[in-house]
């Protein structure tokens, strides 16, 4: 079998490793089509940020070994909703992986975990800082046996002053300031409807892993990658954190409004709201023309983006009166024809159905035959090496025999 992690890493300055043409097989005989075929990932993470990262890598062809405690990833028990009595939370972020359950209170299982880490291209973990040290699974210990390893650590608040803080997305939404920006200004702060910073951190981890693999292909050197939810949150709030740093003004909740652009929010129509996202003067002129009030675009109060933003209290009722003559669906057709940014407010089912109507094919079948389940497509499209969806999310310890056999095959 072909296993890139068993190949001698190139010496500094040597040509990068290239997988032989026509060979696209992972460590377990799977033949994925993705660009990471041949890469092995030891996944010591759980819940969301880490498993989301490793699922994306698995979709792209990596052989991911999910290492769990005997009780399993916590998300296995996060119900409802369920699919055939399994947690849909777990199922949504663990496809294309193989699983083994190891009890770190058992020296033999610790030794197995160490072998897995020493035989993989990538190790990813989200234990509390220092939590793996006593098991010989920290970066220094793994790298001593395997200098070419790419070792990624995900924490909540880093390894310095925040090392003792529990890393939950909700806590980071509160501490980072996101909740202070979310919701109606007259009501309590709200969290996002999805664990947005877990997802962003998982994406950042994936970017880091891929970058380090590229560097290793050039130099032969592995390295440690550290990402944390708090730093990802501050980076992910982009214009809000940047706006504070550059202006000194602390942003506050504005409901569905945008602090710098108007109209950029849901607007009422004859039967419900439609979202408008008018970001420049050309779009505003078009909007006014479509609404039958072209003179509004030259009104000095609304002529430029800063004018419209500062005078939104005056502009809002004018737009609402003009929009009241048609339904949201009718306006969507009119605005779309005029190439104006707008959107209906869908529920999740509506969002998936809308993507299907656009031909985005958002739903894929994971696995095959009677064992297949539906899943959301990997969002990255490769023209030559498409993502694969071969394996349904594994049960606890489902692949122990295959993983042990693979470990034996890696030994001289």
UniProtKB/TrEMBL annotation:
Identify the keywords attached in UniProt to this record, alphabetized: Transferase
Q: Which domain of life is it from?
A: Bacteria
Q: Please identify the protein, giving its name as recorded.
A: CoA transferase
Region (Disordered) spans which residues? 1-28
Molecular function in Gene Ontology: CoA-transferase activity
**What species does this protein belong to?**
Arthrobacter terricola
- Name the InterPro entries on file: CoA-transferase_III_domain, CoA-Trfase_fam_III, CoA-Trfase_III_dom3_sf, CoA-Trfase_III_dom_1_sf
